[in-house]
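Anyone able to model this chain together with iron/sulfur cluster?
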Amino acid sequence: MTILNPNTESEYAAERTFVKSYLDRVPVSSAISDAQADVLKVKIKQLLAERNAVLVAHYYTNAQLQSLAEESGGFVADSLEMARFGNQTDAETIVVAGVKFMGETAKILNPEKTILMPTLEATCSLDLGCPSESFSAFCDDHPRHEVVVYANTSAEVKARADWVVTSAIALDLVEHLASQGKPVIWAPDKHLGNYIQKQTGAEDMLIWDGACIVHEEFKTRALEQMLHLHPEAAILAHPESPMAILEQAEVVGSTTQIIKAACERPEGKFIVATDAGIFYKMKQLAPEKEFILAPTAGEGATCRSCASCPWMGMNTLENLHETLLNNLNEVRVDPVLCRKAMLPLQRMLDFRQSQTA
Ligand code: SF4
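re: yes, here you go
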């Protein structure tokens, strides 16, 4: 296994400083009262109807956006389900509450539709940590390898890939490729890549050195101490978390798989190692159960609030309302790039289809 180091700590530090300074200036939905939120929700629902638009929100967005998506006939989902949703709706406009790569993916899969986002500035440390030029050069140096990239990448990186996957499908796909003896380049999340390699035994796998700044913050020793306090709890972890966290978990899976486990497992209490936004859906589907956030790095953490993605937090009722009212923040992807990036995305969807058929 080879690990690349395309980013230095200082580059990440600069990005984190930018995010923090941006977030300090941006009002977030938690700053408005429930009454103000209700007024905005009514206005947004009306605008969605007028525009024949539908709101799709990721599990990591705030609870107000998730509930609005459900109340207005939209959808709350992980990135795989979000990618598929566009094909299943007659709406002319899809409003994606999430981060940039999710809006781009929606556009790539639905080039004929208008894709809007509450903000175009919400990105992702995985996307930022995998610049298309250096990644493409690396792929050129390893022409025998199947290039498998996570959905958390730019349209340019997707266009360079053979496969685009989400965490819900990554394990199955790499297992499939390994069974055919194919060498694999995996990018950009090193923790997910290491987990996949360990699970599949894929021997020839080159792993890019990217990471999610939210999941990286979960702390192993503090998790052990938390488990001592709650010995009856099961640990549910997203595979973007470090290996030492995953090794302690009863369930490792995508957001959808974690939610499913919380509903179906016999335990009444869970320690959850992923973004806190997921609690909205967990509490909705399993209100009788208790959910505790896995411990993070406290004050020293890179995120504004630990286990809370700063970029997901840029999506608010206020900027969603502004977007619809003033027709802002349309996601545009070059049509040629769209067609190139569509191929590995469609392969993922076809592969998923073949798995469930
Ligand atoms: S939670 Fe991590 S992987 Fe998800 S958008 Fe935020 S930085 Fe990216």
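The first strand starts at residue 2 and ends at 3.
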